[in-house]
């Protein structure tokens, strides 16, 4: 048996396809190739080093008709074309283009399950039922060929959720073979899970005993399933690999952290039913639990779901000392939820310990009530000390939100506080101006009133019998004043 190892290296001497041959390859017309005498299929390439099979498989997806009859006809034509081409030059199966992709990679990319089976049959010399060890090994070597990103055909099929291709690729594969990660540290199971392709996930878990669950950034296939938001995919992985619920990524985030941050409360419920202890795990940076992450995002339904399954976790605080209510307090829709926990309905009995959180101070002495007042109420900010406290709250919230992300999704933006530094300066200026205006108004009123009642010439001050009477009382100038006062 020929040892193929890696895909065949790019040949130096090639013949570029002309327009008629390229169109014939794309449309699966074998007649054009039959009419070319002395044509060397092995050296016939595009500038990207795609061979005839690459071109056919990549273009047939775009040119296939929307009508079912024509689609079936094209599939039949493609199968006949592939069979005849492989009959002429079976080595085309092992040729890679500039990206290291073999025809099998292209077939996997576009979900060509029938073509994949033809490739496997060709590599097995046409006898799938009675494979010898040499033929079986030849098939498996082809299946394990990698492109320049270290993707096998199985990686590609799993990424795009082509369940028929996944099934065909695993039919003759060794169930104990450990498929390695690609250059992005993704396994086939991880890729299928991240896409939410639960049927492909099921096949991988059922037929592949050595299923590696790892992914990039320390994630697992369960992290990926949660990121997809697909409940069925999450259930499938939990059933087989339930121990992944407490596995953390490189940031200390469990799958429950992901679900809480993304607000996928149906998945939150599945995870908690499997293992409620994950609700107490804090991440590496801020020691935030899944409950605190849900509150930070303002996901009220998720908050309630976590508390329903794990009410005691409400007492966990993060590295700054912030509790559940600190986070809910700066979300514009969460005030009603806070009140329901503290005051109204049955919530005060079900979540009785939450009532005490409103007065809990963080490491800086800030309570949830102060955060709530700053972002949702009428914050009292009448002094420089009040402003310093306000600035401290705003900075803390900024640290919590800005440049933070979980599961590749940023933290939701927060509303502006009700009182800012500029608002305070404006308020203090207006209050100072008001006080000044009051003083001026009082002085003007005093002077005006005094001038209005002053008697011309003044009064006599000596201690005589007419003390206190006007000097001009007996003069003619006094009479207008006397007459006016008598009216």
UniProtKB/TrEMBL annotation:
Q: Cite the SUPFAM superfamilies for this sequence.
A: Ankyrin repeat
Q: Which InterPro entries match?
A: Ankyrin_rpt, Ankyrin_rpt-contain_sf, PGG_dom
Pfam families linked: Ank_2, PGG
- Where would you find the membrane-spanning parts of this chain? 438-459
**Keyword Membrane, does the record have it?**
yes
The UniProt keywords, alphabetically, are: ANK repeat, Membrane, Transmembrane, Transmembrane helix
Domain of life from the UniProt record: Eukaryota
**Where are the ANK-type repeats located?**
99-131, 149-171, 217-249, 251-283
Name-wise, this protein is PGG domain-containing protein
Native source species: Gossypium raimondii
Q: What is the lineage of its organism?
A: Eukaryota, Viridiplantae, Streptophyta, Embryophyta, Tracheophyta
């Amino acid at each position: 048996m020929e040892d193929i190892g890696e895909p065949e290296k790019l040949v130096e001497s090639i013949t570029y396809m002309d327009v008629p041959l390229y169109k014939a390859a794309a449309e699966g017309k074998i007649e054009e190739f039959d009419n070319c005498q002395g044509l060397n299929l092995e050296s016939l390439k595009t500038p990207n080093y795609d061979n005839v099979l690459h071109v056919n498989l990549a273009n047939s997806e775009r040119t296939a008709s929307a009508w079912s009859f024509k689609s079936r006809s094209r599939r039949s034509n493609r199968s006949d074309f592939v069979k005849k081409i492989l009959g002429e030059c079976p080595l085309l199966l092992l040729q890679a283009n500039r990206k290291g992709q073999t025809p099998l990679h292209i077939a996997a990319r576009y979900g060509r399950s029938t073509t994949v089976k033809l490739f496997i049959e060709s590599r097995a010399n046409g006898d799938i039922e009675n494979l010898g060890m040499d033929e079986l090994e030849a098939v498996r070597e082809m299946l394990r060929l990698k492109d320049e990103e270290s993707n096998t055909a199985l990686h590609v099929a799993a990424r795009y959720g082509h369940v028929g291709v996944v099934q065909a690729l695993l039919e003759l594969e060794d169930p104990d073979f450990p498929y390695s990660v690609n250059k992005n540290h993704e396994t086939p199971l991880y890729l299928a899970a991240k896409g939410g392709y639960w049927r492909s996930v099921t096949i991988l878990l059922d037929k592949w005993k050595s299923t590696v669950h790892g992914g990039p950034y320390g994630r697992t296939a369960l992290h990926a399933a949660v990121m997809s938001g697909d409940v069925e995919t999450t259930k499938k992985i939990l059933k087989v690999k339930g121990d992944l619920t407490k596995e953390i990524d490189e940031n200390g985030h469990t799958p429950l952290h992901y679900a809480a941050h993304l607000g996928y409360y149906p998945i939150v419920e599945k995870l908690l039913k499997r293992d409620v202890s994950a609700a107490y795990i804090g991440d590496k940076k801020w020691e935030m639990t899944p409950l605190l992450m849900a509150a930070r995002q303002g996901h009220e339904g998720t908050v309630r779901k976590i508390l329903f399954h794990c009410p005691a976790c409400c007492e966990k605080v993060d590295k700054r000392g912030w509790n559940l209510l600190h986070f809910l307090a700066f979300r514009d829709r969460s005030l009603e939820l806070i009140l329901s926990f503290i005051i109204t309905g049955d919530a005060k009995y079900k979540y009785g310990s939450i009532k005490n959180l409103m007065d809990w101070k963080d490491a800086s002495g800030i309570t949830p009530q102060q955060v709530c007042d700053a972002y949702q109420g009428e914050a009292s900010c009448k002094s420089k000390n009040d402003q310093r406290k306000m600035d401290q709250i705003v900075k803390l919230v900024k640290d919590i939100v800005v440049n933070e992300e979980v599961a590749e999704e940023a933290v939701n933006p927060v509303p502006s506080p009700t009182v800012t530094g500029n608002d305070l300066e404006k308020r203090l200026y207006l209050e100072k101006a008001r006080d000044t205006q009051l003083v001026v108004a009082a002085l003007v009123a005093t002077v005006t009133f005094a001038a209005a009642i002053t008697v011309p010439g003044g009064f006599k001050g000596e201690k005589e019998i007419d003390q206190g009477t006007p000097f001009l009382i007996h003069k003619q100038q006094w009479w207008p004043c006397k007459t006016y006062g008598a009216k």
